[in-house]
């Protein structure tokens, strides 16, 4: 009897702690750190012809359904270069599919197709018999992200498929020219001041300017940041971020997705409100339309 009672108390305490953790009032600091959910992941799901492999991260102890995000790596990169995004976003309540392109040199248009195919996979996982996250994804809450050529692919996909999405987050995107005036989803564009691969004056800033000012949009440029500032540090010199700003990028991305994918208005001030001086000092340019 004592053992049964003790187990019941432990269960009640565990549930209470989970409720308290998931119901915490959000702050920039909490959104930039690991979130309240335990993260699990798997790779054994049907892979379409548009990409070669993927990993799905998800919040293992979230009772409610969750929105989902597909993420493409950049030129000569693999899904491991996006792994911190998968872990971080899943810990804050999202399912995240990081993908491997069919070829490391796939251009942005091919990556755009891969991203939308990944959205299809996430929808399929919600209904697949025996699927790990069967019945857990809200198909009406989808977003896409990507780095470099994957960021260019993110913009192309959002331009053509806004009706299927709730938000887009390209970071240090690479795509010469491009008109993204058909994008109708809120778009957070992350750039880096000293990006020598996708110079902001040729890529990110012109991309942002073509986005409709009638839709929510934001341009965040990291002061002194290089092309890989939003990537996972894999230990390879070429792919090593030169500035530790993952807390700033992670907090804004989570707030953006909570507001526009999950529709949680309590995050609006964390997106469009005044940044703390310590964060503002890390940006060389910050502009938005609410």
Question: What are the salient characteristics of this protein?
Answer:
290 residues, alpha/beta, Rossmann fold, 9-stranded mixed beta sheet, 9 helices, 9 strands
How would you explain this protein's 3D organization?
With 290 residues, the chain is of the alpha/beta class. It has one domain (2-289): Alpha/Beta hydrolase fold, catalytic domain (Rossmann fold, 3-Layer(aba) Sandwich). 33% of the residues lie in helices and 20% in strands. It has 9 helices and 9 strands. The chain has helices at residues 2-22, 28-32, 83-91, 108-125, 149-161, 204-210, 246-260, 268-272, 277-280; strands at residues 39-42, 53-59, 66-72, 95-100, 137-147, 167-171, 187-192, 217-222, 283-289. A 9-stranded mixed sheet has the order 1-2-4-3-5-6-7-8-9, with helices on both faces. β3 (66-72), α3 and β4 (95-100) form a beta-alpha-beta unit. The longest helix has 21 residues, at 2-22. The relative contact order is 0.13. The model is unreliable at 1-21 (pLDDT under 50).
